[in-house]
Design goal:
About 5% of the residues lie in helices and about 25% in strands.
Length: about 650
Amino acid sequence: MEKAFSFFFLFTIFFFFHSPTNTFIECTKNISTDQSALIDLKNQFTLVNPDNVLARNWSTTISVCYWIGVTCGSRHHRVIALNLPGMHLSGQLPTSLGNLSFLSLLDMSDNFLYGNIPKELGYLHRLQVLLLSSNNLTGEIPQQLGNLRRLEMLDMSTNNFVGSIPSSIFNISTLKSINLNLNHLSGTLPNNLCGNIPNLIELHLERNRLSGPLPTNLSSCSWLQSLVLQMNEFTGFIPREIGGLEMLRLLALGVNRLTGEIPQEFGNLRNLRILNLRANHITGVLPKTIFNLTSLQVMQLLTNKLIGSIPREIGNLTSLQELDLYENFLSGTIPQEVRRLNEVEVLDFHSNNLSGLIPEVIFNITTLKIIDLSMNHHWGSLPSTIGYALPNLEDLYISDTMLSGVIPQSLSNCSQLSHIILGFNYLTGSIPKSLGDLRFLSFFSVVRNDLSSESSSPELSFITSLTNCRELYILDLTYNDFRGVVIPKSIGNFSSSLHNLGLAGTGLKGSIPEEIGNLSGLQTIEMVGNDLGGVIPNTLKGLQRLERLYLGYNKLRGPIPSSFCKLEKLGLMYLKENQISGYNLHMYVGKSFFWQHPKHTRKLAKFDIPLPSKEPSKWTNTRDNCGDAKFGITRLVS
């Protein structure tokens, strides 16, 4: 989500990108020093990979100034840039790199470097850009890097550095960009962090183990545009001084342990594009001042302890593309002013205490891709025209509310729909057959509603149309009212992408179609609490990915198919309240049984089989061979 504002425009100010002059002046001693350091580097990489690009190109028969990735200055004919990113180089950095005394740029990012950073890099007094990101470097960051008094860009992100960030780094007054994301750095930040680096433009310390309070003098970094401190262990209040950073475009403080309220001063961040305070312990109400940030594109305040209502001023955020307020304690209604968010793509309010009629204006915001109003106290219905106004909709989540009415036929016009989650509501009517036109549909759940089947059809006819949804992964229709109809044979036409099939508690009658054995991708079948009869189809032997089979509380009869011995991933089977007999059981040994497949030593399958009329005189264990499998049957002790 978070956008890192790159400042590689710094490269354009470096004179060292000029090609080396053809009138090369021999400075034997100095250039020999550079060559020796580079040969040490080449040898380190050749030890690991003799066929690396440097082994093939860096030859002492030509000047180092013509080696790949090496740039020499036209004045002193010394190495001023070493540019070797993404060359699959593996090895350690030699200490002799500190002898490249004219070096201004060192870029060895996106390789396979390992080991510690040599402290001798602190000798590179002309260095302006140091890029070592995306390697496997370890150990602590040397204090000696604080000697790089001309350094403007430092990027050592995505490594395995430990320890604290050297305080000396925050004394390099020329620094404009610090990126130490994705390491294992710990300790605290100095309270006067910005006291000696007034030119800092970006500070990225994401995904480390930094702790303690946030520095209070951040406003001294008046040029700061990107402040990313998320996914650490920072505590305490959010400093109001951050509101003085008028140039700030990205503020990411999410996933920490910050407390207190959102400072009113944040309303001064007129250039802010992204505000991420997610997953902290922030309390209080939403300050109205932050709804004056007309440049804001992303607001992520989810998973906090915010209270109060959503201000009507939300309509001022006309540039907003993503609004995440979920998992808070917000109450009241969703303001009608959301209609003015004509660029928003994500509206996520789930898991709050919002109430009132769902504003129909939400379903007229044509840019919307994700709507999530779940787990609130809303009521209302889906407008019949929903499919005509939301051409870009991908995910529709309105579960566990008081949604009523029918599923609109026009929903099928939302051709990009992937997720339809409308469970735990009061929907009525039938499921439109037109939903079968949604070729990207992967998750369809209407669990626990009052949906019914078409009165004119003896079977679940919409199943046939849904089989056209070839990416369907989960189909959950449990606990609706399909009494008196049968499962169509067309259920076997679903693609192998279907993993979960939920038809529990729907009142289905008839038998389980043998065609269900065609669904080779199934992992879970839920058909508990119906009126299904007949035998368990032997075709289930084809479901080699099946892990859970729930068929309890039906009218099934006959034996457990012997072919189940071959279902090596089957971990749980529930058959209670049927007329099913065990497989080759010599005796009943209690009401509940465990089946442990030999390849699932930690997974137990529970069989619920009716007790015999007379309890055996002795409880015991028994085993029956089933090919290579063995059933270990033990009485369940409560």
